[in-house]
Write a structure and sequence with these properties.
By secondary structure, the chain is α/β, with parallel strands linked by helices. The protein contains 17 helices and eleven strands.
Length: 365
């Protein structure tokens, strides 16, 4: 029997006009990204901070040492960034002023405050030429019949993986920016996690942090001085890590994880495919005692979910696209995580709390 024909509903004039405006927005969003890059490179957030957190446009031009003739152009950039939620403004005042908000606070340089993590390099990595070119190559990548393991569009286009020992051969500055951006991204909100999930570390005597840079465990040790912490990473990274109170160990988490009551994987597994995640978690399971003895793996990762609301969910999906375009990893929903945990031999898990776009998960042997 032939499939029943479906009646196509023709959009109304009003719907088509709205659709056109939406198409403009989605097609031109890259200009918002470029405007953020411009603001970061001009040090606009830092200048506003140094001017007391709010400033007029003429004062901002002076503080930035920009030609006065650029004032009307800067106004147009700032107008877009205010509308996009990057800055705030008091346009109804006698003199229009621009202010910092929580988002632009993350882009202020040199702030001595707990939980402030400078996110400049995350922005610069996200809009770097190599990232953008990889995104532009998506359609060609989809058309290629590539042998597994399928390389990312970034690796296919540029010939080397991102976050790999060969990445500096492609571009040393890109490698530096990406690693600094990754560190800033990873260490954001550790103070919030410690405060909001205090019981996560309660009763622990030892903890191994896989692929950390020492910042996270230093914060944990400050809040819980009795916990003996070890950071595991590859020898190349450990060699460049400054010596402090943290115990560093060089190794390969695919082969061995130093024994501890708990193992922490903070924003690590999203770089790897499911099979590799299972291998990593199997080593973590070997490193911890039984559940009765307090053994667990602490995972801090995005847990994709529409329940987070449309804006947060869109942010999660965009980060998933970053992983798809630039790495062989991905972001996962709860069902994906459950399947990986069970394949790795764990018996149970619990999503302790969702903080921002991330979930805090305890996984039990």
């Amino acid at each position: 029997m032939a499939a029943e024909s479906q009646t196509i509903v023709v959009p109304t004039d009003a719907e088509l006009l709205q659709a056109q405006a939406d198409l403009w927005r989605h097609s031109l969003y890259y200009l918002t990204s470029m405007a953020i890059k411009c603001a970061v490179e001009l040090h606009i957030p830092t200048a506003i901070y140094n001017l007391g957190g709010a400033t007029s446009l003429p004062d901002l031009i002076t503080a930035l040492s920009l030609p006065p003739a650029k004032l009307p152009f800067l106004r147009r950039i700032m107008r877009l960034l205010v509308t996009s939620g990057i800055f705030a403004s008091d346009s109804n005042a006698e003199v229009e002023t621009f202010r910092l908000n929580p988002l632009s606070w993350l882009l202020v340089e040199g702030v001595e405050a707990e939980d402030h993590t400078y996110q400049k390099y995350f922005v610069l990595a996200a809009v770097s030429r190599h990232y953008v070119e990889a995104g532009l190559s998506l359609a060609n990548w989809f058309k290629k019949d590539l042998a597994p393991p399928v390389p990312s569009p970034f690796e296919d286009l540029h010939g080397v993986p991102l976050l790999h020992e060969n990445t500096p051969l492609l571009d040393k500055e890109l490698d530096r920016i990406v690693n600094e951006g990754l560190a800033a991204h990873d260490n954001l909100a550790i103070g919030t996690i410690i405060r909001e999930c205090h019981d996560l570390f309660k009763g622990l005597q030892s903890l191994t942090d896989c692929c950390g840079d020492g910042t996270t465990v230093s914060a944990i040790m400050k809040a819980f001085p009795h916990i003996k912490c070890t950071v595991l990473d590859i020898p190349k990274v450990i060699k460049t890590t400054p010596a402090d109170a943290v115990n560093y160990g060089a190794g390969d988490m695919f082969k061995f994880v130093p024994p501890a009551q708990a193992v922490m994987l903070k924003l690590v597994l999203h770089f790897w495919n499911d099979e590799d995640c299972v291998k990593i978690l199997e080593q973590c399971r070997k490193a911890i005692p039984s559940r009765e003895e307090g053994g667990k793996v602490i995972i801090i990762e995005i847990v994709l979910s529409p329940s987070m609301g449309p804006i947060m969910y869109e942010a999660q999906l965009l980060v998933d696209m970053v992983m798809m375009v630039n790495t062989r990893g991905r972001q996962r929903d709860e069902n994906d995580w459950r399947e990986i945990f069970m394949k790795a031999g764990f018996s149970d898990y619990k999503i302790v709390k969702k903080i921002g776009a991330r979930g805090i998960i305890e996984v039990y042997p």
